[in-house]
């Protein structure tokens, strides 16, 4: 068989980005002395890079008895994810 840690799975590459803007509220809308609203957008895997799922222990991809699928990735991980947030602080 294959020795321990002699077979490596696919590499994982990811680039994340976060953009935020804070607005100070006008004096007639303030509940406190320094009330503000923050709007934020988070982008995970911004370049939408295909990342393959890691090989599981004793799966079809790592079994020497299954030579047709040995070393083949069977699934992909999530693509680009965008998250919007809003926060009011006072």
Features of this protein?
mainly beta, 3 strands, three-stranded antiparallel beta sheet, 0% helix, 90 residues, rod-shaped
Characterization of the model:
The protein has 90 residues and is mainly β. The mean pLDDT is 82. The chain has strands spanning 17-24, 36-44, 81-89. Strands 1-2-3 form a three-stranded antiparallel sheet, with no helix packed on it. The chain is rod-shaped, with a radius of gyration of 23 Å.
Brief account:
By secondary structure, this protein is mainly beta.
Question: What are the SSEs and their pairings?
Answer:
Blueprint: E1 17-24, E2 36-44, E3 81-89
Antiparallel strand pairs: 1-2, 2-3
The string of secondary-structure elements, in order, is EEE
The rough form would be described as rod-shaped
Percent range for β-strand residues: 25-35%
| Tally of DSSP helical segments | 0
Average pLDDT for all residues: 82
Helix content: under 10%
Care to count the β-strands? 3
Amino- and carboxy-terminal Cα gap? 63 Å
Q: What structural class do the secondary elements suggest?
A: mainly beta
């Amino acid at each position: 068989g294959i020795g321990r840690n002699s077979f490596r799975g696919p590499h994982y590459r990811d680039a994340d980005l976060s953009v935020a803007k804070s607005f100070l509220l006008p004096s007639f809308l303030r509940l406190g002395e320094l009330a503000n609203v923050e709007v934020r957008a988070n982008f995970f895997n911004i370049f939408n890079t295909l990342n393959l799922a890691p090989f599981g222990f004793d799966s079809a991809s790592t079994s020497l008895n299954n030579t047709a699928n040995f070393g083949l990735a069977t699934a992909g991980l999530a693509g680009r994810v965008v998250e919007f947030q809003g926060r009011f602080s006072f």
